[in-house]
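Batch job 17 of 40 flagged for manual review because the log was empty.
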Amino acid sequence: MKGMELAKAYFEEYGIQMIEGQFGEYKGKIAAGLVGEGSECLGFDDEFSQDHDFGPGFCIWLPQQVYEQIGPAMQQAYDTLPQSFRGHMRMQTPQGGGRVGVFSIPQFYGKYTGLPQPPRDNMEWFRIPQRFLATAVNGQVFCDPLGEFSQIRHTLKSFYPSDVLKKKLAAKVVLMAQSGQYNYPRSMKRGDSYAAYFACGEFVKTALSAIYLLNETYMPFYKWVFRGAEELTVLRGAVHDLKELVMLPDTTENRSRKEWLMEHICIEMGQELNRRSLTRTTEGFLQSHGEELMRSIEDSRLRNLHIMVDFE
C-alpha cells in the first residue's frame, strides 16, 4: 500500500471519528491531509521507504486562534490513535519527528517558507528555495471546510511571479554556461579530473533546476530530482541527456561526448527561452541569455542583484 493511500484510509477510520467525537464544535475549521516531508508525500515511496519514518499518520492544520484553543488537546488525542494499521506500524526516527500530527497553519507553512502567510512581494518569493516550496505544496488535502490552509497552498502552487522566475533563470543559465560550457572543457584540458567532476555536477544540478523552473514546477529534495523530472513535459530531451551525462566518468575517452552533451543541453535551453519569448538572442553561450533575462526584469531590487545570486 502506498503511503498516501495508507494515510487517507487511516484518517477516514480514526481521524474523522476523533474530530467528530472530541472536537465536533470545531469541525468546520479543521483541515487534514498529508503534506510535507517524506517520499509518500511525493508519491515516490516504495518498499525501501518503509524502513523509517513511514506508517499510518496524517496532518491536522488549524487556524492560529483555534490552535491556541485546542491544539495541545488535539495533539494528545492524536497521540492515542493506534500506531499500527493494516499491517503497518509507524516507525519514526528523531530526525523524522514532527512530520504528522497537529499544527497551526502559520506554523506549518512557516517551517518551509519562513513566512506565516503567503509571500507578499517579489523579494519574499525570491528568498524561498524551490525544494522548500516543493515540500510545502506536495501531498494531498483530505478535507478543508474553512479553506484557509488550501488558500495559502493555492497561492504557493501558482508558482513564482514573472520577475522572480526571470531572476532565478538568469542565475541558472549563467551558472550552466560557467560550469558546463566554460570550466568543464578547461578542466579537462588541464587534466584536472577533480575540478571537471565538480563542474559537471554543478552543471547537472543547475540544468535540472532550470528545467523545473521552465515547467513551472518546484524542484524537490535532491534525492528525488531525477525521479520527479520523469513527469515533466518541457525539455524532456535535455533530461534524457543529463541522465547520460551523469553516467559517464570524467575520462579522456568520454571528454568529447560529455562536452557535446553539455553544449546540446545548453542549445536546447536557449531555444526554449526563445520559444517562451523570455530571450531573443540566438547565441549558443548561455551567458548572453542570462544577461538578457536580467535586463528584462522590472523590479529594480531583483534587477540590481548580481546575476548569479539565487537562493536555489
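Reviewer: the log was empty due to a logging misconfiguration, but the result itself is present. Residues 3-157 form one domain. Unflagging and moving on to job 18.
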